[in-house]
Amino acid sequence: MFMLDQLTHRGLAQLAKQYGGLFHLQSGVLHMVVVSTPEMARQVLQVQDNILPNHPANIAINYLTYDRADMAFAHYGPFWRQMRKLCVMKLFKSWGSVRDEVETTIQALASKAGSPVNIGEMVFGLTRNIIYRAAFGLSSNENQDEFVAILQEFSKLFGAFNIADFFPFLSRLDLQGLNKRLVKARNSLDKFIDNIIDDHMEKNYKNISNAEENDTDMVDDLLSFYSERGKENETNDLQNPLSLTRDNIKAIIMDIMFGGTETVASAIEWIMAELMKSPEDLRRVQQELNEVVGLDRRVQESDLDKLTYLKYVVKETLRLHPPIPLLLHETSVDSEVAGYFIPVGSRIMVNAWAIGRDKTAWDDPDLFNPSRYYKENAADFKGNNFEFIPFGSGRRSCPGMQLGLHATELAIAHLVHCFSWELPNGMKPSQLDMMDVFGLTAPRATRLVAVPISRLSYTFF
Ligand code: HEM
User: Fold this and answer.
1) Ligand 1: nearest atom to the Cα of 407
2) Helix 144-159 and helix 178-206, axial crossing angle in degrees, nearest 10
3) Could you give the CA distance from residue 247 to residue 259 in angstroms, rounded to a whole number?
4) Fewer CB under 10 Å: which end of the chain, C or N?
5) Residues 273-289 pLDDT 10s
């Protein structure tokens, strides 16, 4: 019998194996297809891109994204296209906040050298700070706790099982009290971001004659597309999609907070865990850093392109631990996948986790082996090799890929250049727990704890 706990990347990979790579579930209220081989992913993401262009939403997502006023849940069409262009061109640039926040983390680690550090918590704090600062600017840092509480409640509500998603007529009864929580969460976000927007508008107004003012954050950038007309009419203006409403601004900020925080944190923590588990690979990365950077100065962004082995380590970790293990799409018309009729509105999941470990596509698929990318025409994750899709592929693939990779590579380069790392209490690399937990992302089941030991002749203070 089909069990709900099989709906994880591991459970679905097992089921797909039994059914030749494709698992198809059809019941009265649910029509779902899970594909788990590179060839099926190609069929779905490339060939059928035009019929699977949307991410499915539920009641919570509709409400918390102001009725899909964001990018990630906007239906494919002119509004989504404009939002995506805006995000890629204006917002997802290489933010200075990455450099500054990595530096703050390294300084904090240096003061703890010799003692065990919870890497998972540290890295999550790092990515949250990067994105918070990029979105709101430096001066808003003191309100971070309030915003994190809002994010956490949003996250719980996104993931909550709501019976009204399956039986809409029950929504008005609010049997689980979820409607009340949704309204409260959205009111908190409204209040929080409205204050920030008002502060920014006032600041920008005062600085209007200051030509040297170029220290903008994401809210500043978004405000340059904000229209008073949109404010009155609060709808997505398709005639002029670049006139944003406050709802659009709030919803985009939430996309970026959700899209960019846990994904990058999960990648960095997994990379550190794989390196702790494989001291020989850690040694090779450090050797490369010795050659490219040396021990008398710190890593700079311009060094990253020369750190080939470090990039292979990042790739290999994303293959084994894609931060988003299941890509969730929705058909916009009736269609067919591998001979199955799929009606409009069905869920199609692509199991990126299983595909990265596919035996027909990868030699020794469960082995962590960064050297596999040395060969010519090695698979890459830019979206054309369907055996390697941690960022997805096609028009709904990740628009934050460059930024996510930049933050990941810069953080790892500094962490392993500045410090040697040991496991606490004499733990052996083979004893490290490498299990994950399933959710929207698949982070480590147990947080990584390790001891940093300074290794530079350069002093931090
Ligand atoms: C290692 C880091 C990251 C990974 C592995 C990752 C992975 C992904 C994946 C797999 C998707 C969905 C693809 C699909 O459904 O087919 C996605 C979408 C998205 N990501 Fe990322 N991501 C990362 C970093 C980021 C960052 C840093 C941001 C923003 C600053 C971001 C923003 C988004 C957004 C807004 C979408 C939705 C795009 C749309 O629907 O058009 N991601 N990401």
Assistant:
1) 27
2) 140
3) 18
4) N
5) 999 999 999 999 999 99
Short-list 35, 236, 256, 59, CA closest to 162 = 59
3-state secondary structure 47-105: HCHHHCCECCCCHHHHHHCCCCCCCCCCCCCHHHHHHHHHHHHHHCCCCHHHHHHHHHH
87 labeled binding residue: no
Q: Are 436 and 445 in contact (CB under 8 A)?
A: yes
Go through the domains of the chain in sequence order and give each one's CATH number. 3-229+242-460 (1.10.630.10)
Predicted confidence (pLDDT) at residue 60 exceeds the cutoff of 70: yes
98-115 residue pLDDT tens: 999 999 999 999 999 999
Backbone angles phi, psi at 450, to 5 degrees: -150, 165
CA 341-342-345 angle, to 5 degrees, is 160
- Which tokens go with 436? 């994950």
Ligand 1 mean position to 392 CA, how many Å?
8
Interface predicted TM-score (ipTM): 0.99
pLDDT of 130 above 50? yes
Positive/negative CA dihedral, 410, 411, 415, 416: negative
The answer to whether the predicted template modeling score (pTM) of the entire model surpasses 0.90 is: yes
Structure token digits, residue 310: 């470090």
Cβ within 8 Å of residue 130, ≥6 positions away: 95, 97, 98, 101, 260, 264, 407
383 CA to middle of ligand 1, Å? 13
CA distance 96 to 380: 27
Burial class of residue 208 in the structure, from the number of CB atoms within 10 Å of its CB (0-12 exposed, 13-18 middle, 19+ buried): exposed
- CB of 257 within 8 A of CB of 158? no
Atom of ligand 1 nearest to the CA of 80: 41
